[in-house]
Amino acid sequence: MNVLVEGDETPLINAAAEGSLAVVQMLAGAGADVNLSAWGGDSAAPELRTPLTMAQRYGHADVVAYLVAQGAKE
């Protein structure tokens, strides 16, 4: 659940980026770390990603609110 996939992020980061509130809730409820970060982007411009930053980036306000309520921090 909290395993980083090389060249990708965690399932929770991906679900947050997609705006899938039901999947975010399921993963967090099963113990996914809402503050686990992963490096993403390309090698020329890597960026540190979290579930919260990705939900914010794509404008998923419901996912942002849920993650914050679960203790997610910037």
Explain this structure.
The chain has 74 residues and is mostly helical. It has one domain (11-69): Ankyrin repeat-containing domain (Serine Threonine Protein Phosphatase 5, Tetratricopeptide repeat). Helix content is 45%, strand content 8%. The protein contains four helices and two strands; from the N terminus they run ααββαα. The chain has helices at residues 11-18, 21-29, 51-57, 61-69, and strands at residues 38-40, 47-49. It has a two-stranded antiparallel ribbon. The longest helix is centred in the middle third of the chain and has 9 residues, at 21-29. The relative contact order is 0.23. The mean pLDDT is 92.
List SSEs in N-to-C order: HHEEHH
User: What does the average pLDDT come to?
Assistant: 92
Q: Would you tell me the structural class of the helices and strands? A: mainly alpha
Radius of gyration: 11 Å
**What is the CATH-assigned architecture?**
Alpha Horseshoe
Estimated helix fraction? 40-55%
Report the CATH C-level class.
Answer: Mainly Alpha
- End-to-end separation in angstroms reads 21 Å
Are there runs of 5+ residues with pLDDT below 50, and where? none
* Arrangement of strands in the largest sheet: 1-2
Percent of residues in beta strands = 5-15%
In terms of topology, how is this protein built?
Elements (H helix, E strand, L loop, with lengths): L10 H8 L2 H9 L8 E3 L6 E3 L1 H7 L3 H9 L5
Antiparallel strand pairs: 1-2
Helix pairs in contact: 1-2, 1-3, 3-4
